[in-house]
Amino acid sequence: MHYIHFKAWVMAMAVIALMVSCKKQTAHSPEMLSVNAVEVGPNNSKVAYTASDLHLAARMIAPGKIAGIKVQITLDETNYGWDFVKTYTSPYAGQKNADFHEHIAVPENARPGKYTLLMVVADESGGKAQGKAGFEIIRDLSLPRVSNASLISSGAILNFSGLIEASNKISRLVIEVQSSTWARTFTDTAPDMVDQARYQVNKDIDLSAAPAGHYHVNVTVFDKVGKQALYAYHFDK
User: Fold this and answer.
1) CA-based Rg of the chain, rounded to a whole angstrom?
2) 111 and 190 inside one domain
3) C or N terminus of the chain, fewer CB within 10 Å?
4) Are residues 42 and 116 in the same domain?
5) pLDDT by residue (tens digit) across 34-61?
6) Residue 14 carries which DSSP code?
7) Pair (192, 230) in one structural domain
8) What three-state secondary structure class fits 27?
């Protein structure tokens, strides 16, 4: 009888030890090459507009270091539409993990419809992993727009200029400047711009407090009914 109890106790201890061992192995298991948290459009809206920028973001996990990140966009229903293919290396190559963040200009003549985004991360050993997301391109001629836009960095001053047009009248201009260590948002509601259908903007932004580095700039124009157009830029300070 005591032998049976002892045998049962030994078996129970063996099961517990196996469970603990599995937990430890899981906790220390290496990360796998992967594409995670794919985001398409502002706030992951899964919507883009012609003649505007498409926001893309994702978390890349690459224990073997990233060699490149391929982005491919295709129209779902037919081969006769806008497509896009590009492999990004800078600034991601050589990193083990990276937050991918890019903006792609959607041409004015892009065919509206359902599209598929394919993102493929390759590591330095030749391994690959991919992530997919669907989104829609919409043509809305009433969206605000900026033409002849220019972004010039000259040390402590960042200048943005261009012609803003908004059939629903201009509400505000928002400029977001961010790097990996510094970020600021500048909102312009100049009285001579608000409620206008056309406005030639020429705005200087003081970046004297910003450290040296690579910066992303998002310029967004909002109209009076809440519609917006986003334009993305990069610069080095």
Assistant:
1) 25
2) no
3) N
4) yes
5) 999 999 998 899 999 998 899 999 999 9
6) H
7) yes
8) helix
